[in-house]
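A reminder from the course coordinator: this example appears on the midterm review sheet, so study it carefully.

Given structure:
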């Protein structure tokens, strides 16, 4: 019995679900970052045998199923590191994210369950030519970004950036503003920006739409993608942009370049921190003095006081409804001053 075929969310910018294509194995010399490829699921299923489809829906897969994803790199400090370039001659690799970021892991945290195992089945082809993400990137005139930006950065992955972004978007919408929300760096995952849409954002986007499976890429490549992403936002009729930089600015996701591009428009910076000492680390290593600290570092009064003592920054637990009026005041002051 033939396995099923799943289109991961890295294919959402493409027409692969609608327009026929062929699958054929190509020699290693023809492989490249952002190529669309088909992997056959192998191994023993774990909690990671889930794919995020092009709709954002999570679906369970089984051995024998075909998954269409994309070659790329991941450099997650808390989970997994890998690249398609590390795939050995046995053609075996993993889904490094459920969104279909494919590569061979070279380092994985000991508490992480086995990632989904796949075997290379072939590249996606049309007219005897391989297809990649870049083939589906729409052209956008270069337009300067003029709207104020509320910038979300983190001390690491899983520091509360997306949760903080949802809360801020909700508050901005309550103020009657038209909001754009974007994730400018990180590894492909659709559900983060979909959650921004659910929170009320009028427009959403991420680096996938600029043809990147992750932002672990040469700086020149990322600079071109940033220009495109900012032009896309600039073309929208919005009052404010909530911008998230995945991971932290010091990790190899080009977060420093994203901040460089967005800095002229940043009216408020929020650092989501895993703990109070991480706030100090980012401040010293990257020269950041955030307007507000949130995330786990601000979960308790003890953490809030320690952030203030160590870094001089104000911290606020945004999960506490009683703190939302303070957040609203800070947002209004920042936007009024922009």
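Designed residues:
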């Amino acid at each position: 019995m033939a396995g099923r075929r799943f289109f991961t969310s890295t294919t959402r910018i493409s027409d692969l679900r609608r327009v026929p294509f062929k699958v054929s194995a190509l020699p290693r010399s023809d492989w490249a970052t952002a190529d669309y490829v088909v992997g056959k699921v192998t191994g023993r299923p774990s909690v990671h045998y889930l794919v995020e489809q092009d709709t954002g829906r999570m679906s369970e897969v089984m051995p024998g199923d075909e998954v269409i994803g994309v070659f790329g790199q991941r450099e997650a400090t808390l989970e997994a590191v890998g690249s398609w370039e590390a795939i050995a001659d046995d053609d075996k690799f993993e889904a490094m994210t459920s969104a279909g970021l494919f590569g061979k892991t070279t380092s994985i945290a000991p508490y992480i369950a086995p990632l989904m195992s796949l075997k290379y089945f072939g590249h996606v082809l049309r007219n005897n030519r391989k297809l990649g993400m870049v083939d589906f990137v729409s052209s956008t005139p270069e337009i300067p970004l003029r709207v104020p930006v509320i910038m979300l950065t983190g001390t690491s992955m899983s520091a509360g950036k997306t949760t903080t972004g949802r809360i801020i978007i909700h508050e901005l919408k309550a103020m009657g503003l038209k909001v754009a929300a974007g994730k400018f760096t990180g590894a492909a995952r659709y559900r983060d920006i979909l959650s921004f849409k659910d929170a009320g954002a009028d427009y959403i986007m991420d680096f996938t739409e600029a043809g990147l499976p992750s932002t672990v890429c040469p700086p020149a490549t990322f600079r071109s993608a940033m220009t495109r992403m900012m032009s896309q936002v600039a073309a929208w009729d919005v009052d404010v942009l909530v911008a998230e930089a995945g991971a932290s600015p010091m990790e190899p996701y080009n977060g420093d370049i994203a901040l460089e591009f967005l800095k002229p428009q940043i009216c408020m910076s929020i650092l989501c921190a895993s703990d109070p000492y991480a706030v100090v680390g980012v401040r010293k290593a990257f020269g950041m003095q955030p307007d507000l600290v949130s995330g786990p570092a601000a979960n308790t009064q003890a953490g809030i006081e320690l952030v203030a003592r160590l870094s001089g920054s104000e911290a606020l637990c945004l999960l506490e409804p009683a703190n939302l009026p303070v957040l609203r005041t800070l947002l209004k002051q920042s936007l009024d001053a922009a």
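The longest helix spans residues 219-234. The mean pLDDT is 93.
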